[in-house]
Design brief:
Chain A is α/β, with parallel strands linked by helices. Chain A has one domain: 3-Layer(aba) Sandwich (Rossmann fold), CATH 3.40.50.10210. Chain A is 50% helix and 8% strand. Chain A is built from 15 helices and 5 strands. The interface between A and B is large, with 63 and 63 residues.
Chain lengths: 331, 331
């Protein structure tokens, strides 16, 4: 894999720029630290963009879509056809993410990954061949615009919370109960079944969780591999990333197997209603920007978080300093 | 008081319109309920605005500013002069809220309430006379534009987290430790002192907490009374309100003494870093939209929440239904 060769050259966070950003924040007309997470976000952007003029205007929202053989096991309330139907809805401008990308401006692009060719049922064998997984990863890398200021990542794929749960379980350990939730809405009996399916799959592929691509190949899916590729490519380009929900986070989490700091350029846009997502964020040490109970996917939570990121940039960039405003600082 | 006579005529939430909004939400191309809080916010707006076309374009952000005699007790890290200096900063466009009102468009207006004439030190006697309190309440009512789609309420006032803590303590009971936090940043010793001050004040005026105005008069402040007036007037006009932090919430909470449903048209924009704010929101049964650790005041947290409200409206208003998009609904 191209990406895996680049490990030693991964751009690092610019701590000097971060410190300069913090120094500016401490001069702005507010009690020190009182904008809290908004200050952290501004300093994070400055450190990754290596500037005291952080930019978010050229935002790109990428949605990767894939289909999953594991739906044969009855893990989703919706049929696989809905993935392509929703991709059609994205193209027609009717989905939630279309409205959110207008309200919180961002370029929206949807990348379908062989929807007519679902992955294999990973309770029976690997979801993909190594080549298929590498191709999906590469498709994710290729989708990242080099000039993006910030990337918002989302997904669509009937059955993919099952794949996300399997990846999270494979990467972070524990047991299926920790990682399997109701997804788009299965009933309690179906939830028990979904847990069995995930437990069985993760056990079946034991011994293949040594690296990111192998996890994604065995118990992931095409859109998950592509998401990991997009996160990786954004890092190569030093582009900050807002992760959406459980599926995006699980895909990204696999990268941590390869490089513990692989997600330092990412923030969690929100924590979804899937309990496994909260657990996985804790495992990753990531604090979500929003906690609104959302569980739609398609980048919707991350897109709303972009509004918070922009608010942060607005305050950081345009507030007056105590000196400029002739306001007395803390005595 | 004019406002208190209007109790019986308080506009009620339109449950029929809410139900119609929920019915529409269930037809949109997403699993039912998957936008969670965004759906709740849309239904809340529809119910108060009595329409299935909720509007937030004509948003008004009001900041009420006041000064506090209790600062003589050494409860704030900043001198009282900073209130007027910050009002100057608002006018010059240099404060956080100026940038946030540009990034998340809203008409900003700052109403100064006799800054040159601080309230009395409420450890010695009532903060204000009944007439002064009523005038401040009326100033808050008068500041609400009748044609506002939505109101965002904030405040500025050195010493006013002490007044907020005293009001919360008077309204919701408990003890000073429950309600007193560090405000804009006092040290541990000063925090202990602030707790003593609040405990002493609340005890001194015991017996005067039977109604909203009396609480605000004895242990509140001018901007708190005005905030309560603005909340009340918005209710008369059926205008939805986004409350900011501890001070705004404490002022609004006093109204609950008068009418238990007085805040049904309000949402908590965020929960601040002041522990008393979280406790007070729990006491009120309000779930904050954002939890970003912010503690600046000046409507900053509520203003960021307006972006979430707008995202909610965008999804509600413009998403396609399953039928329109020819997407299969749950089988």
């Amino acid at each position: 894999m191209h990406s895996l060769k680049l490990e030693k050259n991964l751009p690092a966070f610019d701590r000097t720029m971060e410190a300069a950003a913090r120094a500016r924040l401490d001069q702005l007309t507010k009690p020190q630290g009182s904008l809290a997470r908004l200050e952290d976000i501004a300093a994070w952007l400055c450190g990754w963009q290596k500037t005291l003029k952080p930019r978010t205007e050229n935002a790109h929202t990428l949605i990767f879509a894939g289909n999953h053989g594991v739906v044969k096991q009855g893990v989703s309330a919706y049929p696989s056809e809905v993935t392509a139907q929703m991709v059609g809805n994205f193209a027609a401008g009717g989905a939630a993410i279309n409205q959110l990308c207008k309200a919180i401006p961002s370029h929206l692009r949807v990348i379908s990954l062989s929807l007519e060719n679902p992955t294999q049922d990973f309770t029976q064998g690997p979801a993909m061949s190594a080549e298929e997984c590498a191709a999906a990863f590469q498709a994710g890398m290729d989708a990242v615009p080099e000039d993006a200021d910030i990337l918002v990542l989302g997904e669509m794929g009937i059955g993919n919370t099952t794949a996300a749960a399997a990846c999270a379980h494979a990467v972070a350990g524990g047991n299926p109960e920790n990682w399997v939730g109701a997804g788009t809405g299965v009933n309690p009996e179906a939830l028990r079944h979904k847990r069995e399916v995930v437990g069985k799959a993760v056990q079946l592929h034991q011994g293949n969780y040594g690296d990111a691509l192998s996890v994604l190949q065995h118990v992931g899916g095409r859109e998950l591999a592509a998401l990991a590729g997009a996160v990786w490519r954004a890092r190569e380009l030093s582009i900050p990333v807002i992760l959406d929900g459980y599926v995006v986070t699980a895909a990204a989490a696999a990268l941590v197997l390869f490089a513990p700091d692989a997600l330092d350029h990412c923030i969690a846009g929100h924590v979804s209603a899937e309990p496994g997502h909260r657990r996985l964020l804790e495992w990753l040490g990531m604090k979500p920007v929003l906690d609104l109970g959302m569980r739609l996917g398609e980048a919707s939570g991350a897109q709303v978080a972009l509004a918070v990121v922009r608010a942060s940039v607005a305050a950081f960039t345009h507030m007056a300093t105590f000196e400029e405003a002739m306001v007395a600082n803390k005595g």
